[in-house]
Amino acid sequence: MTMPSKWKIAQYWGKSPRRRDLAPPLQLDEPCCFACGSFAERWRRKQDTLQASWQRASLERSHVVPQSLGGPDDASNLLLLCRACHRESPDWQDPEHMVRWIATRAERPSQELETFMAWLAAAERAPDSRRP
Question: I need a surface site. Which of 57, 67, 71, 97 has the fewest CB within 10 A?
Fold first, then answer.
């Protein structure tokens, strides 16, 4: 069985009764990380369909229950996470552990805003080159 597309995963969770537990920030009209809500403005282009935007998004497929612990490769066992959330996500057999982990994730702004804020913080720490 092949892995479902990002769009199929988003559609599944958009209709799932467990959406509030496993994909709280999900809005189908804007690709975002299911755990922290992070998104990037560049993922959505005016001329694109929603499906194309979800496919372009730099989100990674993450198993609720990992394959190594018996989890299947179907949409009901896959979430779309940003790289940071995917790297930190737990590997447990019980999906309720993933639910609790998602509930503790802090929301993040857009990737562009995070980059700008990091640049601004670095600029504030840099010595003023105009001073003698």
Answer: 67
Cα–Cα distance between 41 and 70 in angstroms, integer? 36
Q: Which two tokens stand for residue 42?
A: 């560049």
- Answer whether 98's CB lies under 8 Å from 92's CB: yes
Reduce the DSSP state of residue 70 to 3 states and report it. coil
- In the block, tokens 């609720």 appear at 64
**What is the residue-averaged pLDDT of the chain?**
88
Cα 85–chain centre separation? 7
Nearest partner of 26 among 104, 65, 82, 66, judged by Cα = 82
Scanning 1-132, the segments in alpha helix (DSSP H) are 6-15, 19-22, 50-56, 83-88, 95-104, 111-125
Task: Identify the residue with better confidence: 7 or 111.
Answer: 7
The three-state secondary structure class of 68 is helix
